[in-house]
């Protein structure tokens, strides 16, 4: 009999059965390896081609290696994994499909733009808590060069980027979710996990009519504000109930917009807020303008930095909110707006 999953408020779930974020892995490119989190990543590429012939294959290699690494760290095999939840920023999610092909694990391909890490963790934790899977792996990636080619201009074009633009993180994060701690015996004793997923708040598509595809922070901030507000309402909490409220890739522009939008709705998260896109690069030493972005931004920061803080007991409860801008070259060129979405994950000490 599956344990009950409790619906909370309009958009949230609280899990009746424990869901553990048992292990994780992070692999990044050279620029990320020069940033402030460099010592925390599991692997840093010697160059951003990762031994491949093109940017798209390089991103596929990122996902393949991240899944290999998380399984190795957890001492489990692909046969121990019920499902993969994977996605990326490329057309038809080719980084995931080509990168994960040889694992032969049942796959749910997902797309939430840069919020894909949150979407994967949400769906994976729902499957585990409901008893549909004992172990799943959630993985996502992005690559600066493949993303520029997909959404903006090939690197050879040499276009000038405005100060509001963010820098797509080259990296992949993989996460093993389990109904039990690693190494736990049949009586529930012992074992280890990096964190517990206590609940989720699924985001809605939010569109403030912004059409500037070079200002992702402004496009995504309204969605982040909506999801954070709904999480606080659904769980009857205040910002102070979280040690950190962490968005995925709003950067410096989006951070200010987010704080202002939530103040208008009665919540001040100034003391709790942190953004992965701000943390992953050094603003003074690295020219990334508004900060970092991309599917890999939230994923590698969660794996390398956020989970470490939870493991060490520095943070007891975190609201992790990856953010995504829902656009394509087609929609942008046809004059459409850039809607946003954000998914909230409640992470607690295991």
Account of the 3D structure:
By secondary structure, the protein is an alpha/beta fold. It has two domains: 18-178, 3-Layer(aba) Sandwich (Peroxisomal Thiolase, Chain A, domain 1); 195-348, Stage V sporulation protein AD (Peroxisomal Thiolase, Chain A, domain 1). The chain contains nine helices and 17 strands. The chain has helices spanning 55-74, 94-100, 116-129, 144-151, 216-234, 251-264, 276-279, 295-311, 329-333; strands at residues 5-8, 12-15, 20-28, 43-44, 83-87, 107-109, 135-142, 167-168, 171-178, 195-201, 244-247, 273-275, 292-293, 317-321, 323-325, 340-342, 344-348. The strands form three sheets. Strands 1, 2, 3, 4, 5, 6, 7, 9, 10, 11, 12, 14 and 17 form a 13-stranded mixed β-sheet that branches. A two-stranded parallel ribbon has the order 8-13. Helix 1 (55-74) crosses helix 2 (94-100). The mean pLDDT is 92.
């Amino acid at each position: 009999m599956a344990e009950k999953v409790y619906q909370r408020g309009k958009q949230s779930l609280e899990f009746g059965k424990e869901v553990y974020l048992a292990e994780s892995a992070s692999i990044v490119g050279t620029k990320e390896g020069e940033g402030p989190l460099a010592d925390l990543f599991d692997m840093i590429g010697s160059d951003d081609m990762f031994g491949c012939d093109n940017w798209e294959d390089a991103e596929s290699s990122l996902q393949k290696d991240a899944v290999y690494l998380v399984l190795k760290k957890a001492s489990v095999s692909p046969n121990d994994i019920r499902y993969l939840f994977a996605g990326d920023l490329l057309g038809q999610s080719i980084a995931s499909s080509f990168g994960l092909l040889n694992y032969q694990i049942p796959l749910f391909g997902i797309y939430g733009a840069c919020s894909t890490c949150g979407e994967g963790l949400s769906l994976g934790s729902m499957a585990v808590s409901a008893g549909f899977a004992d172990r799943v792996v959630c993985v996502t990636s992005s690559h600066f060069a493949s993303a520029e080619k997909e959404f903006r201009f090939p690197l050879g074009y040499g276009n000038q980027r405005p100060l509001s633009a963010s820098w797509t993180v080259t990296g992949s994060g993989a996460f093993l979710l389990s109904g039990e701690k690693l190494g736990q015996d049949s009586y529930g004793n012992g074992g280890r996990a990096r964190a517990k997923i206590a609940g989720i708040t699924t985001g809605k598509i939010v569109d403030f009519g912004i059409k500037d595809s070079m200002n992702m922070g402004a496009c995504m901030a309204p969605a982040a504000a909506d999801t954070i507000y709904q999480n606080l309402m659904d769980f009857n909490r205040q910002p102070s109930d979280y040690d950190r409220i962490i968005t995925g890739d709003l950067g410096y522009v989006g951070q200010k917009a987010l704080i202002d939008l939530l103040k208008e709705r009665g919540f001040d998260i100034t003391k709790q807020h942190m953004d992965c896109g701000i943390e992953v690069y050094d603003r003074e030493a690295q020219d990334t303008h508004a900060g970092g972005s991309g599917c890999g931004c939230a994923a590698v920061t969660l794996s390398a930095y956020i989970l470490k803080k939870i493991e060490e007991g520095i943070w007891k409860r975190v609201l992790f909110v990856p953010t995504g801008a829902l656009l394509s070259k087609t929609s942008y060129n046809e004059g459409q707006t850039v809607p946003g979405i954000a998914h909230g994950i409640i992470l607690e000490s295991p």
